[in-house]
Amino acid sequence: MSEPKDQDRPLKVDALKKSQLSEKSLKHKVVKGGLYLALRQLVSVGLSVLSILVIARVLGTTNYGILVNALGIFYFITWTGKLGLHVYLIQQPDLPEDAPEQVLAFLSWMSLGIGLALWMLAPAIGQWTQEPAVADLVRSLPLPIAVDFAASVSIAMLERRLAFAEVGLIEIVAQVTNYLVALPLVIYGWSYWGPIVGLGIRGVAMLVGAQYLYRVALRWRLRWDFLRPALRYGLTFSLSHWVISLRSLTIPVLITPIAGLEAAGLVSIAIRLVEQLSTLRMVVRRMSISVMAKLMGDPAAVRRTVSRGMAYQALLIGSVCSAFACLDSWIVPKLFGDDWLQSTHIFPLIALSAMVRAMFDLHSGALYAVDRNAEVTKSYVVYMALLWVGCGLLLPVFGLWGYGLAELLTVLSNVWLHRALTKIYGAPKYTAAAWLTVAAMLPILGSLVSATVGIVAFVLSYALVLLVPEVRAVPQELFHAVMSRRRKVSEIS
């Protein structure tokens, strides 16, 4: 091979420098964007907790139950109705110039069709839930759904550009706008209409901000040569998320008709509290596919990562949820009022189920990374079947406790994820995660007896389990990882 000419060397050096600068710039952009998204998550949790406190206390159990029936339908449609097209915009390497306009056009037609369907189905939904007010709220959902669909196109294109900081800012502003509108309306007597109006205002604020940063023109003509492959991709990728999104329909489909609006409100509060306390689960879930994609060629590394990830989830989520379970019988009446005390009876069971599910998020991430989406979908189908069949059988017999028991049944769906992962990579090590699960389970179950029993069980179980060397290494690793991340961020800035 001939030696490069001297005049070629400066060109290669310049290209190398340019590549290094580009890589450094990309790294800085991702870190900066990640910090914005982390800030957005913290602000979101704070605002959500505040809204739960105010709205639930002012509305009471029955009116809050009416609201959550409508919100369950709204979230199911906005999570699934985009048919995965926003994901296609983000992940497809090559897009035609008019791709965003075509997706916006399709989603606009979809929102019109969904709006018409909701208007026609509203009376039936009111009869099913045995509450006419739910039908009135359902008729108001088409506008919030339409603006959410429209905003998702510009946001997808911003994420495609790795503009995470801008996306985080848009979401923070939209959510702040939501609560600035919803909370005063609730306080001044608009009842459950306040959050619905806030939801619409949130969508408008997100659409305006997203369109300002990435303009997508609205055109009604559809180009099917682009949309057909986009829909095939989106439907395949999103199928598992559609199945698990059915969970948001559990309240309007099962709990309200069987147990009534008050039970719907109580269950919703317990679920929302668990979701806010397990916020760190969302961080691991968002990272898991990316991380696993880099390790898929090394089965031993995958097993180690899954084993450690399970232990981290069990420690972080289990300790927070079990601590709250011990104190919730004191905290909830003080913050929400005495009417909400019954939600503390089922909170421990929902928290225990959520903790176990969180441990298997790494399994799902590893399966997604090697395109085993069908295996994840099957586990979600089992999960939903156990939840809905459990609710149908147990709610009429045990009332509110029936939902908590149905949540515990869903733990069995994780067996499918374990088997699917083991076939590809071998079995991960469950020892540390199992010890930490037991440590959280004892105070969670003890809190069902009394707060004092729960607190004593919490102190003793975590004190004893940390004597196990393999378990003690988990919080030590987390501490070192956090300190290392802080040093890296300070060096970059």
UniProtKB/TrEMBL annotation:
Membrane topology: Multi-pass membrane protein
Cellular compartments annotated: Cell membrane
Record-level GO cellular component terms: plasma membrane
Swiss-Prot/TrEMBL keywords: Cell membrane, Membrane, Transmembrane, Transmembrane helix
InterPro entries linked: Poly_Biosynth_Transport (IPR050833)
Top-level taxon in the UniProt lineage: Bacteria
Pfam family name, one: Polysacc_synt_3
Keyword presence, Transmembrane: yes
Transmembrane intervals: 37-60, 66-90, 102-121, 170-190, 196-214, 312-333, 345-368, 380-403, 444-468
Family membership: Belongs to the polysaccharide synthase family.
Protein name stated in the entry: Polysaccharide transporter, PST family
Biological classification of the source: Bacteria, Bacillati, Cyanobacteriota, Cyanophyceae, Leptolyngbyales
